[in-house]
Write a structure and sequence with these properties.
Number of domains: 1
CATH class: Alpha Beta
Number of strands: 9
Helix content: 25-40%
Oligomer: single chain
CATH architecture: 3-Layer(aba) Sandwich
Bound molecules: S-adenosylmethionine
CATH topology: Rossmann fold
Shape: globular
Number of helices: 13
């Protein structure tokens, strides 16, 4: 747990909370956080509701001008968050306990949101959450979304500084969730990351990974958000089946196209990139499997997406 969360109050001898600071923290994590906090404005009528994100966003001094005003990336974040919740809900139908590992977790409130949406039987199958990100982000998270016996906080740097993640795993088959981080890595780092996860899970694991077609990322500066933040995307994937070529033991199980759930008038922006992509999905959530390393392949589980 970070020591930055508390400081002594002079003269009182009591610990006082320090105002949360975004110093040293990637501003990109504010996009999904604000999307979740403002879901009803961005996508009226959607099933998405996140009181924890609203409370969290209210505590931070967020400079909106720095983030631009483009609602498209935020709406896409909501679609992928819904898809991840649905996929995890499907995994938890299987009557085995799972440890859910949120890599590059930022200030994602998924553990709270999922807990609220699951029935008691599925909630009981979550052995624990492991939330991991770079040290400055975890220091902020420690302060704002405290860890608990059920939710462990660890520091990790992708692709392969994952020792604390390894130490937090148990004998259950992990689900690794990588949401909104791979575009910031290069292809070699993404391959390194998949290989490193394989080493963490010799008996196998499931993976949920969002991916973006090069055509979508090429047009990402149409809106002012990524322009203003000077974001440079590095990794794009035209077909999530190609993950299997990137590292050993990866199998492709299923994918969900993240754009169709958004109302058409919220995704008009994608017309041109769609043409450039020849109709391939522009934004996907892929379900991958890490097969057991000694290849004692047991019965093939089906993908969780319909
Ligand atoms: C766009 S944010 C997504 C955060 C979170 N997954 C969510 O959906 O709210 C990207 C996150 O990736 C983290 N990140 C970037 N590079 C990383 C690396 N090499 N290792 C671990 N985390 C990284 C950032 O600190 C940030 O929290």
């Amino acid at each position: 747990m970070s020591e930055t969360a508390k400081a002594d109050t002079p003269g009182t001898g009591r610990a006082a909370r320090v105002a949360p600071t975004l110093d040293g923290v990637s501003r990109t994590l504010l996009i999904p956080l604000l999307a979740r906090a403002e879901a009803q404005r961005l996508w009226p009528g959607s099933a998405f509701d996140d009181a924890a994100a609203r409370a969290l966003a209210a505590k931070l001094a967020i400079d909106r001008a720095e983030l631009g005003s483009d609602p498209f990336p935020m709406r896409l974040c909501l679609s992928r968050s819904l898809a991840i919740e649905e996929a995890l809900g499907a995994f938890l139908r299987e009557p085995i306990e799972r440890t859910l590992v949120l890599l590059a977790c930022g200030l994602d409130t998924l553990p709270v949101r999922l807990d609220a949406s699951l029935d008691p039987a599925r909630r009981a199958r979550v052995r624990r959450w492991v939330c991991a990100d770079l040290p400055p982000v975890m220091a902020l998270r420690d302060q704002l979304l405290p860890a608990s016996e059920r939710i462990r906080h660890v520091r990790a740097a992708l692709p392969d500084q994952l020792d604390e993640v390894a130490a937090a795993l148990d004998e259950t088959r992990p689900v690794f969730i990588l949401e909104g981080v791979l575009p910031y890595l290069d292809a070699e780092q993404v391959a390194g990351c998949l290989a490193a996860l394989g080493r963490l899970a010799p008996a196998g694991a499931d993976l949920l990974v969002d991916g973006y077609h090069p055509a979508l990322l090429a047009f990402s500066r149409l809106g002012n958000t990524f322009r203003r933040m000077r974001t440079r995307f590095r990794f794009a994937i035209a077909d999530p089946r190609d993950y299997v070529e990137m590292a050993p033991r990866i199998r492709f199980r299923a994918q969900r196209n993240l754009l169709p759930p958004l109302p058409w008038h919220h995704r008009k922006r994608t017309l041109l990139p769609s043409l450039a992509a020849g109709g391939k999905p522009l934004a996907t959530l892929a379900q991958l499997e890490l097969t057991p390393s000694a290849d004692q392949s047991f019965a093939e589980p089906l993908g969780v997406f319909p």
